[in-house]
Predict the 3D structure of the following.
Amino acid sequence: MLSSIAKPFAALALAAALISIVLAALGASPVGVFAALGEGAFGSWYACVDTIVKSTPLVFTGLAVSLAFSGALWNIGADGQLTVGAIAAGAIGPHLGNFPHAIAVAIILAAGVLGGAVWGGVAGWLRARRDVNEVISTIMLNFVAVQALSWVVHGPLMEPSHAYPTSSPIARAAQLEFYFAPSRINLGMILAVVLAAACYLLLFRTGAGFELRAMGRNRRAATFFAVRIPALTFWVMALSGALAGLGGAVQISAISHRLYEKLSPGWGFEAIAVALVARLNPLGIIPAAILFGALDNGSQAMQRTQGISPELVQVIQGLVILIILAFDTPAWRGLRENIFGAPHDAAAVPPVAEMPDA
Amino acid sequence: MLRANAITKRFGRTLALDAVDFEALPGEIHALVGENGAGKTTLMNVMAGSLAADHGEAILDGRPLQPGSPRAALAAGIAAVHQSPMLFERMTWEENLALGGFDTGAGALDLDAIATRARSLAAKLGFEMPPAGATVENRSVAERVRLEVLRALSFNPRVLILDEPTSVLAPSELTAFLDLLRSLRGEGRIVVLITHKLAEAIAVADRITVLRRGRVVARTTPARTSEEKLAGLMIGEIVTQPVASATPSHSGDPVLQIENLTLDDHTGRRILDRLSFRAAAGEIVGIAGVDGNGQTELVEVLAGARRPSSGKITVLDGSSGGAMAVIPQNRDLDGLILDMRLWENLILARPLREQVTSHGWLNTSHAIDLCRELIDRFRIRAPGPETIAGALSGGNRQRLEVARAIASRPRVIVAHNICRGLDLAATAEVHRTILDFATGGGAAILISSDLDELLAICGRLLIISRGKIRETNPGERDPERLGLLMAGARD
Amino acid sequence: MLEAFLTSAITMATPILLAALGELLVEESGVINIGIEGAMLAGAFVALAIAYFSGSIALGLAGAIAAGVAINAIFAMLVVNLAVNQVVTGTAVSILALGLTGVFYRKLFGVTGKAFMVAPIAKIPLGPLARIPLLGPVLFNHNGLVYFTFILVPALWYVIARTRYGLRLRACGERPEAADALGLGVIAIRWQALIVSGALTGLAGAFLTLAYANTFVENISAGRGFVALSVVIVGRWNSWGLAAASVLFGAAMALQFGLQALGTVVPYQLFLALPYALTLVVLAGFGGQAAAPSALGEPYRRQ
């Protein structure tokens, strides 16, 4: 029987096996590809730093997804929430030149939080008040966000020369500084770690977190025990969106400094893989995000040396999610009980003593 | 001949059927009796192909049935009528019947022809059919049972298995229904009637098989047994009547007052119709009714899970929101979160949750201590507070729910079908706890379809029918008259 | 101008409608597949690859059907047989298909940036009908896939509303445990719906590469699978409604291209966002899923 800790690793091993088959079909050597991935992700100091940089947005979106999923709110919209957070940050960023650094950073990050919270909150409100399935609404909001980003970088926020579809760079004061150069460690990463711990405490050490988990496990029972489902739904979706939006603001503030089309390469969807590998535990999000960030980072080297395009990473993401789902399915659980037997408590019944008309 | 050979079926930790042998002959009504949870429905599902047994087989006329295939069972001639009718709510009744045997399966689907065939069979049985094109969702419970019986008969089955069909019928509809079963027997069919109502079994059956906790404990005939003997076999313990004498009525100040409570569902159908009643400290009030007359919704409204359309609920003399504790009827789906730990299930109750939270922070060790204390006090058989609720037996799950309600220190406890599926000893224990609660100055409201249970413990009895509540005369104890009221008769 | 716009609207509507009709079948059986995008991409890629290397459009279409079916089979295995979360599975399936098509596209066609073009599927003008002014070119001068798609609308309506098969399908979406007790075979029916839907969605993808773009680029479906999902909602689970919603969304897309070319003040993104925004408005307005099958999205498993 697989323990709950070994399971994700077994799933990863199976994913590796299936990916090897895909690679064989491509005529590539699985060993070479995995080696190139590892080399690209962790092969040098710079590679490691880059892996951390690439993991950071995944921590934010991963936390967003794991919070919402813990309450059985299927937020597929972290990508849109991150995008709107980034738009808010990118819109306000160029105007923060006259503020002291700390204030400017606080404002730009708050803008991201607010933008993401609004986008997640809309889906939460629709679910709570209009009974609109959050899956559909968050998917739709993703696309609206993508088009909104495209519009602002071609229109109102376009840089002054109108040569490129990007926004003006944010003010120097609003940019997150790198500490311990050349590590590129920035406040955003520290924030990500702190927030992971905070989400863990929220989920497992507060009354609200308990209500959220209760709602996720059995929504109907929760309604019977004065869990205010509509309010909780709204706030969790808003919080989930805020986390993703903060991720977008950190990306703008620390890395890209400006908005451009297709800002997110799919961090909000990758987050689902991250969250499932972490089994929705916020503390597990950090290693899981680093794992997928490493894949993203290593894929460049893989392309250079093995001629396999970086889309392979998406193949891996998809397979990992599917395999984890398959491993977690109740159908297997039933099978396991059939194989290993289940203890039963009906043995207390005495054997039939009297059989009047047998 | 229908035979079940040494059928064993396990659900997780529970052994639902333990090597059960069963046999029913053509031209007989065979009653399968037992307490709730004895395994009757599981046995039916195995014979009707809805469940595959772990061991053993079902045999019809010497041919083993393909396990786990309802289609094979229907083809072999076994049709089932389920406890809650298996109908498609948003389809018309014609479409519902078209999914049964009225459809010839050849040529284009002809709903008119199906309706005609259904009406002619209905006429023979004395059933009245809904208007053409009516969807099922707005039909009454009795109409649904008729539709499902009709659909089962449309297969022209050699075996008809009925699972507690009478529990949703008003007593007045019962006679006609039992006559129907007799006429089916007359046609040489095998009728298996699953019930926990012993009088019914004795009145209509040719033979009776008694199940207890997944085992056959007796095979007998009505002539050779009596209700008392059957009850003894079903329960397997000395029948101790729950303490009934010490039920005071109106001993204290009013605690709960409900005025003109009305609830309409999203289609505008009236579920609760201007309910008004009150309960006093020290009182146990029973609300009797046939299932599906608004009880579930009343509990949801009282629990705050559903907002009433209008009306007022006042807990007098209750300070906080913890003034009322609710024990919903379906403990596995509504009352507990089976894959959470016992202490977590405990703090589902808001007052207990507040007790172990300060400034929003959850004090888990406090919650675990509290849980351990209640496990001892209410004799819940569990390894400890960290046990997953799903690992408990049904009786212990109910103890946990009652313990949680009492520990919340409410002024009022509302409990819905609280003893369903419990054996008599556990029932008595639950009643004793409720009685202690009332004696201690609380008010208890027991909602149940089991009139006998309510008569035994309640000082005052209300009847709920079609969303309306009416008082009964103090001292009114005649089950027949009360049954008529439950069926919706006006005085 | 108007003629070109309307023709383009019908062309844009076709792949969306084709995929949406498949999704309608699936949703009527009680399953929600948000991975339509995946099957569409797979169909688009396989159709182009086979048509390019074999020179046969017919083989390309067959390949697209096979690819769509294969993707939906993965989905069905998890969702129908193992009863896992449909939403997460659908998301994973589209990520997987996006990755697979990307990787194999680069492998087969290299990274040269050269466009790998195929000849478009031939148009079949419908005799004298095609010569009616305006209506002729707009409605009766398309390739076979377009006609097939629009003929499917009444056909599917009839199947779902009037036939035995449709009744069983709806029964599975309404109350699977009751359908099971009647021996309808929920698992088989849901598999069938997903297989048919896979074929239709694969064809929708093929339409993109073989009839519209005549080549493949990564993520060529560009969210059309999700538009198909919203078409089912906006069309209120009725194939006529689906057709109307598809044409509306197709027109929005066609308008967007015109605006982009003209460089008007109206941002074209508005029209690209229209299907999604409209879906949100419809959902909010109708208050949830009143028209959706009752058991939509709930995994069904026997005890």
